[in-house]
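Course assignment 3, question 2. Fill in each field.
Student: A.L.
Task: Predict the tertiary structure for the chain below.
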Amino acid sequence: MQPNKPDNEKYSVTTLVADPSFVSWVLQGNPVAAARWTKWIAASPENAATANIARQLLLRIGFKEHVPTEDAITASYDRFTNTIAGLQQAPVQRRRLYAVLNWRRAAIWTGLLICVGAATWYTWQQQNTWQATTGFGETKQLQLPDSSSVTLRANSSLHYRRSWNGQLREVWLLGEAFFRVNPDKKAAAFVVHAADADVTVLGTAFDLKQRNHHTAVFLLSGKVRVDFHDKKMGSKVLSPGDLLEYDQQQQKVSASRKDSSYSSWVHGKLTLVDAPLSDIIDILEHNYGEKIVVDDEKIKERKIEGTIYLENKEDILFIISNVLDIQISRRNDTMYFSNRK
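Answer field:
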């Protein structure tokens, strides 16, 4: 940085790690450079954040100049000069000096190239990797770096990465999410990895759930291929309306047909058609973090129809208690479902 440059001059992380003045301040404590950069950092919080990232990159790399000692250079040089007749001493001294300078320049430029490479990788990673999580009772509307949209259900996590050559988009999912994948002619595929299967798509809308050794894929539109990690299960290609479920413990795959109400949770509600209470218990446990004990297993088989909104957990409990005629009580961190007395 030159002294006459204004304090509001903008620098990126890549620019800073390649700037000799910034490098000399961070790695060598150059007092002149320190004064200049300290003033620039103090100009705004954004400058401070950028400088901190660049500084951490340089310190993490931790490169050093490896300059040979004068004795080592002399010994190496003498082994060659002894075989050359008539060589005068003056040129020898000059060549020693040139050797030292060349070693020093090589070390500095190597370090700078490493820094620029690291900064480039960091910038690429920021633009092509992404992650998000949700807590109990929380749903997030997300947009991935490739403009695909995701609705991430409660108690779930998602990690996105695009390959260096741009030919593959990958997502790792724990929990449940609804995807609307943006078609990308430059990308070969969009793949979502779950614990028991991988879902490959090219431009579609689908729901993927992975809970308690149970995987469910519902295709709303487009086309997907499900590749199970258990090779005995093979691969399945789904058409719109297909629901594919896999029970890892029983090693069983089942297929059925559903309409768009299957993914109604994306709109903050449950559209229930002859749904057993066990399905709602599953939602209360996985999406709200409740621990539920049912004193009579037959209670789980009671059916309910209609629309339940998910904004308020207490409303859900009130509805199922009155519609299904069950008593709900709580002791410590556990909720108990039982027949009304």
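Instructor remarks: Residues 148 and 182 are 5 Å apart (CA to CA). The first helix runs from residue 13 to 17.
Grade: pending
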